[in-house]
């Protein structure tokens, strides 16, 4: 198992380049099997969630070549339509492969994806709406089997703007002779990236990024396409807060600042100085900062994935902050660990009340989940003394070269394998 040894207290400074988006890469990797030939993807982050998704695609018969952050996926010989149980458990979001396999082979089987550290993560919205567009679903205690001869034209209303359910419905309805309209669709930028990729292949998807998405089924897709994955807005937000929590000044390159509106405005409200250009931003966190309240919402609201990271910053902002988590039911577990560094936090139902202190003190912490783990690293960077952060496998799921990037910004961080 790996752990970080972090000696806190350094003000970060310098420049960092953001990697490609994890949450755009995963659905686009699923979509890469749809043209039944080759797809070349650029700016794919080298993270374990991407490696696991590639493992699943290879287990289904795809050939994948990886050259640094470029992936070439050849799905011509793909024939297996059963997603392996052990890999399904490793990566919950692999349920996204179901829609793509179904579109290509008209059938797919997969095991119920387990819950995870931030909530039960059900897939009822995926399945309920699959049925509405003509997909036959049979479930036993272990496996779900979907079969579909023909997708039927339908207008569906999502009970909740689920990112995964929106993506799965788009993927499942790529081929055919139908019109699907998804009302109350998720509007996240990763949905736009998926639609841009598929439309480049010749799909007909309209309205991605709005809450009404229309998919017109097509007969064929182009046999070869290349695509560059969008920047990771959650990694970019993580480095913004790294600059704030260490009272440093850093320039963040290769970002789309439009994706970070609510995060930038909240950091400015705290008192940070932030300048933005269209693909880079600069933060000066060396200010007297004050508390703000946060409520997570579906995009374009404050992103739930940055809640753990921003909440940790608020533990050292003067005053009282209330953070309300409206997306996942168990996304404050990480804060029990941050409290071991002296944070003053009270837990209510889906909120926490934070009383800002001057500085955190060092402690040995264990990552509880991906974004909670990143929050612990930032807390250690703020604190005096030496902290150890273990169970880093969570963190390696979604951050490429995290310690290398932080070290380049002046952080005193080393990675130890034991
Ligand atoms: C995606 O997860 C992201 N993951 C998550 O990022 C992100 O937090 C989430 O969207 C919200 O933005 C990927 O894109 C791989 P949802 P997803 O379906 O699709 C409930 C990270 O840290 N729900 O929008 O699973 C669900 O339980 C990860 O990078 C149902 O009840 O999110 C949750 O409470 C974490 N039934 C809420 O909706 C369903 O059928 C949002 O889930 C589906 C979802």
Write a compact overview of the structure shown.
With 418 residues, the chain is of the alpha+beta class. It contains 14 helices and 23 strands.
User: In CATH, what is the homologous superfamily of the largest domain?
Assistant: Enolpyruvate transferase domain
Strand order of the largest sheet: 21-22-1-23
Distance between the termini: 6 Å
The parts where pLDDT drops under 50 for at least 5 residues are none
Ligands: ligand EPZ
- If classified by CATH, what would the architecture of the largest domain be? Alpha-beta prism
CATH class of the largest domain reads: Alpha Beta
Rg is 21 Å
Portion of residues in beta strands equals 25-35%
Tally the helices: 14
Q: Report the major sheet.
A: 4 strands, mixed
Can you give a write-up of this model?
There is one protein chain. With 418 residues, this protein is of the alpha+beta class. The chain has 2 domains: 2-18 and 232-417, UDP-n-acetylglucosamine1-carboxyvinyl-transferase, Chain, CATH 3.65.10.10; 22-228, UDP-n-acetylglucosamine1-carboxyvinyl-transferase, Chain, CATH 3.65.10. The protein has 14 helices and 23 strands. The protein has helices at residues 22-31, 48-59, 85-90, 96-105, 124-132, 163-172, 189-200, 233-245, 261-270, 307-314, 333-338, 370-382, 393-396, 402-408, and strands at 2-7, 13-17, 38-42, 63-67, 70-74, 107-111, 136-139, 143-147, 154-157, 179-183, 204-206, 212-216, 224-228, 249-253, 273-276, 280-284, 294-295, 320-324, 344-347, 351-355, 364-366, 386-390, 412-417. A 4-stranded mixed beta sheet has the order 21-22-1-23, with helices on one face. Helix 12 links the parallel strand 21 (364-366) and strand 22 (386-390). The longest helix is centred in the middle third of the chain and has 13 residues, at 233-245. The chain is globular and about 60 Å long. The mean pLDDT is 96. Residues 22-23, 26, 93, 119, 121-126, 160, 162-165, 186, 188, 190, 234, 304-305, 327-328, 370-371, 398 line the site of ligand EPZ.
């Amino acid at each position: 198992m790996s752990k970080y040894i972090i000696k806190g207290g350094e003000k970060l400074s310098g420049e960092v380049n953001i990697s490609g988006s994890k949450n755009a890469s995963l659905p686009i990797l699923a979509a890469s099997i749809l043209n039944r030939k080759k797809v070349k993807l650029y700016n794919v982050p080298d993270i374990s969630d991407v490696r696991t998704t590639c493992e699943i695609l290879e287990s289904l018969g795809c050939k994948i070549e990886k050259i640094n952050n470029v992936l070439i996926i050849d799905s011509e010989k793909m024939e297996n339509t059963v997603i392996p149980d052990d890999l399904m458990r490793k990566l919950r979001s692999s349920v996204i492969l179901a829609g793509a396999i179904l579109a290509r082979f008209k059938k797919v089987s997969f095991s119920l994806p387990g819950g995870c550290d931030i909530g039960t993560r059900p897939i009822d919205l995926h399945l309920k709406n699959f049925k509405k567009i003509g997909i036959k679903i049979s479930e036993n205690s272990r496996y779900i089997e979907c079969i579909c001869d023909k997708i039927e034209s339908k207008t569906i209303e999502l009970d909740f703007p689920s990112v995964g359910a929106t993506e799965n419905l788009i993927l499942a309805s790529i081929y055919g002779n139908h019109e699907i309209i998804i009302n109350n669709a998720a509007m996240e930028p990763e949905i736009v990236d998926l639609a841009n990729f598929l439309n480049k292949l010749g799909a007909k998807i309209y309205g991605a990024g709005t809450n009404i998405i229309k998919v017109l089924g097509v007969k064929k897709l182009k046999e070869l396409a290349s695509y560059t994955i969008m920047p990771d807005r959650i990694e970019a937000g993580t480095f913004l807060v790294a600059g704030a929590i260490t009272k440093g000044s850093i320039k963040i390159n290769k970002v789309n600042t439009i994706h970070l509106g609510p995060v930038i405005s909240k950091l400015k409200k705290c008192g940070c100085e932030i300048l933005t250009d269209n693909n880079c931003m600069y933060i000066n966190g060396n200010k007297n900062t004050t508390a703000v309240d946060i409520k997570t919402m579906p995009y374009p609201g404050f992103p739930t994935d940055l809640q753990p990271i921003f909440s940790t910053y608020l533990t050292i902002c003067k005053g009282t902050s209330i953070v309300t988590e409206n997306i996942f039911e168990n996304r404050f577990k990480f804060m029990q660990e941050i409290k071991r560094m002296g944070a003053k936090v009270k837990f209510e139902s889906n909120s926490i009340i934070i009383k800002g202190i001057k500085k955190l003190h060092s402690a040995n912490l264990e990552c509880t989940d991906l974004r909670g783990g990143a929050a612990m690293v930032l807390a250690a960077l703020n604190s005096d003394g030496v902290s150890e952060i273990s169970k880093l496998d969570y963190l390696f799921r979604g951050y490429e070269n995290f310690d290398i990037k932080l070290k380049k910004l002046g952080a005193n961080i080393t990675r130890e394998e034991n």
